[in-house]
Structures are given as C-alpha cells and as structure tokens.
Amino acid sequence: MSQHAVLDPQAHRDLRVAMQPDAELGDAVMSCVTVPVEFRQVQAHFPILFHKNPADDRFHAVALFGFENGENLFLKDGQWDALYRPLALAIQPFLIGRSADGEGPAQVHIDMAHPRAGHVDGVRLFDDAGEATPYLEDTAGKLGLLDAGYRECADFFAALKAYDLLEPFTLEVELDDGARRSLVGFHIINEDRLRTLDAAALGELHTAGHLMPIFMALASLSHLTDLVARKNRQSVHA
C-alpha cells in the first residue's frame, strides 16, 4: 500500500533512495506509462502501444518491455539495457501532488512504502545543509516534464479519437523454442487512416503538436521485432 508524503528537507534530510535498476525495486514490469512529450526518446528503444482503461474508456500510452506480466526484457545483469529510461520509471518513488481540485502549485511527494525509498545503499536527497542534491534536482525536472505530459494527454487522445486514428492491435509471437506469446488488448495508430487525412486535418494535428508524436508512435513499432529477439536470447540463456 502506498504511503505518500510531501518531500521535506527536514523530515527527509537523511533519506536515501535506490537508483539502480532492479526487479525487486519495482522494475519487473512489462510496460510503463509514457506521454507524447517523450515519444521521440521512447521510440528509439521501445514499442509504443495504446491501452484503454475499461473503467472510464480513456486511453493512455505505454512503452512495452516484455510480453507478459512481470517480464522486463531490458533488465540485464543488474543494468538497464537501453540508453533511455522512460520518465514514469525514472522518477520512482516520487510523484507530483496537488490539491483535490487539481489546481494550485505542484509539490514533490514521495511514496515511503516504495522499495526504493529508505534504501541503505541509496543516494541522498538533501545535503548536510538541507539543499537538494543533484539527483533530487534532476528527478524534480523529470517530474515536471512528466506532469506537463500528463496534462497534454487529454488533447492528444481527443485528436486521435476525432480523426479515428486508433485501431485494435493483437500480436501472436512464436519463439525459437516453439513457445507462443500473445499481446492483446492494445491499440496502435491506424497508418492507413492517417494517410487518408487531407491537408487541413494534417495541418491541425501539426499546429496542435500532435503530428510528431503520432509519427514517433508509428516508428516505434519496428521495435516489436527487437523485443522478440530479446525474448529469444533470454530463452536461450535461461
């Protein structure tokens, strides 16, 4: 269960946070949420898929790391085997907190129940003078970027819906050892539909800043083949 607290230089002066990639520290996940503002970086390494929350029918984007729950094919020998770490993973165990109405200044919160929080071998958040360490300053910057990305998502997905640019996606994979894996319940950009949009529609998407993330999401799908290759290599060395 989460235990959120407003980050405080007095209460948390000696608190340390683990930075290293580790399954036991929360990295054993097949995907994490990503936002359009980072699609350019994400698409260089991971497939970007879209998932609908059945509770409210809202879409969100995910960076895909594996084919089944708890599988992260980018965790390798205690290292993160990619040059980019999506923001939603990179900021753990921190989050942005706001008032109940969502307005007012944002505050940095920390989940004290997260396995990264209070780790004896972790990095300090504040120095002896109570000032933020470079690690905390960097994390705060990532939190701000992620928070801004979340706030822009509503317009992005509204545009995808308006132009009917999402289509269901299912992937059936047969591995080298004969095992089968399936990806179901996801959506991708409908490339054929995108091609049929007229100049006015494309201009509106471009002006709103949505066209580039759309292209980045499409480009990212080439990494599905890479992900299968990672799975096959893992199976050989298992």
From TrEMBL:
Q: Which InterPro entries match?
A: SapC
* Source organism superkingdom: Bacteria
Which Pfam families does the record match to this protein? SapC
Q: What protein does this entry describe?
A: Multidrug transporter
Q: Which organism is it from?
A: Croceicoccus naphthovorans
Q: What is the lineage of its organism?
A: Bacteria, Pseudomonadati, Pseudomonadota, Alphaproteobacteria, Sphingomonadales
